[in-house]
From TrEMBL:
The lineage of its organism: Eukaryota, Metazoa, Chordata, Craniata, Vertebrata. Signal peptide: none annotated. It comes from Nyctereutes procyonoides. The record marks 226, 318 as: Interaction with galactose moiety of substrate glycoprotein. Residues 51-86 are annotated as: Disordered. Its EC number is 2.4.1.135. Residues 66-81 have a biased composition (Basic and acidic residues). Belongs to the glycosyltransferase 43 family. This is Galactosylgalactosylxylosylprotein 3-beta-glucuronosyltransferase. The chain crosses the membrane at residues 6-25. GO terms for cellular component: Golgi membrane.
Length: 331
């Protein structure tokens, strides 16, 4: 019996050794690196670390497009374009005098800081002067240079001044927009005399003029200021030191007119015949509006934003009759 067992054991022993040797060799081999299955997170990181859920793509989704933001924001509607900024047309009559260039320089320094402004400079002369032409060329402003002389018979003291020049500016404006009667670009007309001082805030106020806007003027009419009297947003009278019975007791620097109103009233001009001194503003405004339609600006006409300063008369008593300097300087 024992001999049979020993004989079977020795028969199986080589195979057992072979199996043990193979197992030992296999355990000594370096294990292959594990390659984990890819993991797709059902979330994506949004702004501020927020986790946004994803959703499966539709049947048309291609490779790499299997996951999408579930609450993906819809494309925003395009913002509406801002309406164009109304152009301010400033009509400035001017005439030759020792302080002319100084006055125009001060005015140009103000106008350069006003967006979308077109300066219409009208000389009281039979031809454009070299001084004003050079000045405008260097001013760096959108401008138009006109000229028209005042007839000699209208240059007497006490008669209205700059009538022809303001009318020339109106004529140029109407001719420029003659084919845009109904679709003219928004604009505002303002009579900017060269001897006044203007706050930049004034141009912001007048730019929203719908028809005719008004505001106070400082240092005019023998008073510190003149202004329209306003109640409940409407002009009801005038605070003035001279002829309060005028239909529009206002200074030339105290109002602005919409471009559309100017184009809709082609016959509205400053008149010579029948116009009394100091009545030009009233005679002009009566042709285009009424007191009830006026639009008070400058905080219901309680802020002064323009001053009728006027330059002091220059003392040239020592100026030689003939030019004695070796160079010629433009002043």
């Amino acid at each position: 019996m024992k001999s049979v067992l020993f004989s079977r054991f020795f028969i199986l022993l080589p195979w057992i050794l072979i199996v043990i040797i193979m197992l030992d060799v296999d355990t000594r081999r370096p294990a292959p690196p594990l390659t984990p299955r890819p993991y797709f997170s059902p979330y994506v990181v949004g702004r501020g670390g927020a986790r946004l859920p994803l959703r499966r793509g539709g049947p048309d989704s291609g490779p790499g497009r299997g996951w999408e933001k579930r609450n993906e924001s819809r494309p925003h509607a395009r913002p509406r374009p801002e309406p164009p900024l109304p152009t301010i047309y400033a009509i400035t009559p001017t005439y030759s005098r020792p302080v002319q260039k100084a006055e125009l320089t001060r005015l140009a320094n103000t106008f350069r800081q006003v967006a979308q402004l077109h300066w219409i400079l009208v000389e009281d002369a039979a031809a454009r002067s070299e001084l004003v032409s050079r000045f405008l060329a260097r001013a760096g402003l959108p401008s138009t240079h006109l000229h028209v002389p005042t007839p000699r018979r209208y240059k007497r003291p006490g008669l209205p001044r700059a009538t022809e020049q303001r009318n020339a500016g109106l004529a140029w404006l109407r001719q420029r927009h003659q084919h845009q009667h109904q679709r003219a670009q928004p604009g505002v007309l303002f009579f900017a005399d060269d001897d006044n001082t203007y706050s930049l805030e004034l141009f912001q106020e007048m730019r929203t003029t719908r028809k005719v806007s008004v505001w106070p003027v400082g240092l005019v009419g023998g008073r510190r200021y003149e202004r329209p009297l306003v109640e409940n947003g409407k002009v009801v009278g005038w605070y003035t030191g001279w002829r309060a019975d005028r239909p529009f007791a206002i200074d030339m620097a105290g109002f602005a007119v919409s471009l559309q109103v100017i184009l809709s009233n082609p016959k509205a001009v400053f008149k010579r015949r029948g116009s009394q001194p100091g009545m030009q503003e009233s005679d002009f405004l009566k042709q285009i509006t009424t007191v009830e339609e006026l639009e008070p600006k400058a905080n219901n006409c309680t802020k002064v934003l323009v001053w009728h300063t006027r330059t002091e008369k220059v003392n040239l008593a020592n100026e030689p009759k003939y030019h004695l300097d070796t160079v010629k300087i433009e002043v």
